[in-house]
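pasting for the record
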Amino acid sequence: MTMQATTGEERHRVALVGTGHRGAGMWGKELLEGWRDRAEFVAICDINERRATAARSAIGTNAPVFTDVDAMLADVKPEIVIVCSRDDTHDEIIVKALEAGCRVITEKPMTTTPEKCRRILEAEARTGRPVDVTFNYRFAPTAARLKQLLLDEAIGTVTSVDFHWYLDTQHGADYFRRWHAKEAHSGSLFVHKATHHFDLLNWYLGSVPREVSAYGSQRNYGRNGPFRGERCLTCSHGQACDFHFDMSKDPWLTMLYEEPSAEDGYVRDACVYREDIDIPDTMTAMLRFENEVIVSYSLNTFMPIEGYHLAFNGTRGRIEVRQYERQAFETPDYDEILLMRNFGGAERIRVPHAAGGHFGGDDRLRDMLLRPGLADPLGQRAGALAGAMSMLCGAAALASMKSGRPVRLAELGGLPD
């Protein structure tokens, strides 16, 4: 599973905060399966004790369960705190962990508001402890190949980018069943989901946006529904609803969400047509970068396809890729990058998919963070500043959408003076 084995090294003392699907899975069960020689859990923490206890069993650890971060930090004194809680709670946990002398690995987005970004960056500088943000898309084989082509100036100087991301009716709808559907918790999908995409742009281009103009609307979910209920489990419209989700068919989600819901009332199958959903499901943005590259971006959340279309336009050519995940048609087990030179023909570059999540990106990310001494020639490892800049892109897009005007990142105040 991993790129290389490491022997003779002490294992990191790890505390996991947040035991939902990503925490219990990628940063829990999978972590122990592939990186047991580098990590041992010393605490499992979640505000829902039933979920934390179930996750501990699924992960395969005997680490103590906590419902309070302060008590956990004081009692077990972890070396690394992995933050997988709800997005709007990240900043409080990250700052407490840094002040307790811990290294932090946080799920994306790093946080949800410019003020919280600033707080994290100031705490990192004050404590001297590092924050890593888990931008696993940087580590996908196709992303790495694209970055190398750009570093090699295969198409000269990049002048503009077309970047369009498609979420299908399975993945896209899932955000509207959960806490992500409230801007207060997720910052909207301009932050929660697009933070991945804005980070890729920042990394690919070696720059950051100066200004963002964006539009967004709610066209399919929320009040647009032909009917609605409280949740799929109890809904009388199940047979008629295209988005009906029977969670009982998924033992993993039932264990992590349905059984623990008795403790706090949070359900994983809330109606996608709830009238209190306040985030857009259809989004587009124009970004002007500090290096004068201009970007056209969009995110749609109820498509028959899953994946993205990405193209870099340069002074000497164009790089284009269509990356397939779930599709309405059969797709190959590789991505194909089309490299076209203005006066030199075209080259098709096949990039095979690797095993593991995000076409192998998840494993490469965990290696980078937990196995010492790995080279990082492409700069794939992302710190708090990268986390802040991608989040601020999303915050600027959201502010532009609401105000109807372009928003400069500098006016958001998310960076220390």
